[in-house]
# Entry
Amino acid sequence: MALADSGGDVEALPITADEDVVRVRQLVRSRAVAAKLSLIDQTKLVTAASELARNTLVHGGGGRAEVSTVTNGRRNGIRVHFADDGPGIADLDLAMTDGYTSGTGMGLGLSGARRLVDEFDIDTGPGAGTRVTVTKWSR
Amino acid sequence: MDQIPIFTLGEVLLVSIQVDLEDQLAMRLQEDLSERIVATGARAVIIDISALDIVDSFIGRMLSTIASISRVLDAETVVVGMRPAVAITLVELGLSLKGVRTALTVEHGLRMLNGTPSLALGGPREAGYGDGDGYGDADSTGDSPAPDAGSRAALPRPVSD
Ligand SMILES: Nc1ncnc2c1ncn2[C@@H]1O[C@H](COP(=O)(O)OP(=O)(O)OP(=O)(O)O)[C@@H](O)[C@H]1O
Ligand SMILES: [Mg+2]
# Structure
């Protein structure tokens, strides 16, 4: 992580409605194609981004996504950062458990998204909002 | 587009999802399909997802829910055309698509339905068997025009890039 360098080409999108989730997917896809991620890696990253964008909307009450191309000198990657000022997550271990949902979902969004990416960071707490950053590297 | 079209092919309802699905649109499809099953007495639903480049937990849940609803309404659901990269991702995400039958193409889906003893789709059973090309079967029932979705759901590409 420390070596990774953001290329200064950050694109941000608000996440305040259904159609924003679709926009995030499309932006992540086009950046992943440009960074020459394989089709399967693109699909995994876009799916993870879709889950996290929906969480930002549904659980976080809306927020934003930032997409950037990163490099560690040898490989390119796509990093997607999600941030909201919602209620935050009190019990993170529980929230990251397969099948746990506080609502009517399947509880696969967070745990599944983590499996689909190479790096997954989450910063959250009760009343502190939620920030999730994921990175997928080209192979 | 604020609605996904549903085509009638004899006793089969065919839905070909051609847009990047917004959550509201997915919910609407669920309702529209249930109403159409009841209104037409359809025995089966084929959902072609060959144009979808991802299936996340929301879309996955919609597919499972449609399968459950149609089962209660005495219709079978088959999801066809899933891309290999989507299938790999779905499994890693942890989605099992419980209760959803799948087939590679619309033609395979129709043949699968014709092989279901409780269903006799497309007229005489021989019409659904035998000729092996999967075509013609739907036409033989045929009042409504078949959308070109069948040809879109060609065999998936290999997973490597
Ligand atoms: N941005 C967020 N803000 C507040 N709580 C969140 C946030 N993201 C996730 N959570 C909490 O973590 C739980 C698990 O999230 P996860 O995405 O795994 O499941 P889900 O959204 O409930 O269902 P699914 O994503 O499968 O439809 C949520 O039910 C919610 O309580
Ligand atoms: Mg979720």
In short: The pocket of magnesium ion (ligand 2) is lined by residues A 51, 54-55, 105, 109 (CB under 6 Å). Chain B touches chain A at residues 20-24, 53-58, 60-61, 83, 85-86, 88-89, 92-95, 159, 161 (CB under 8 Å).
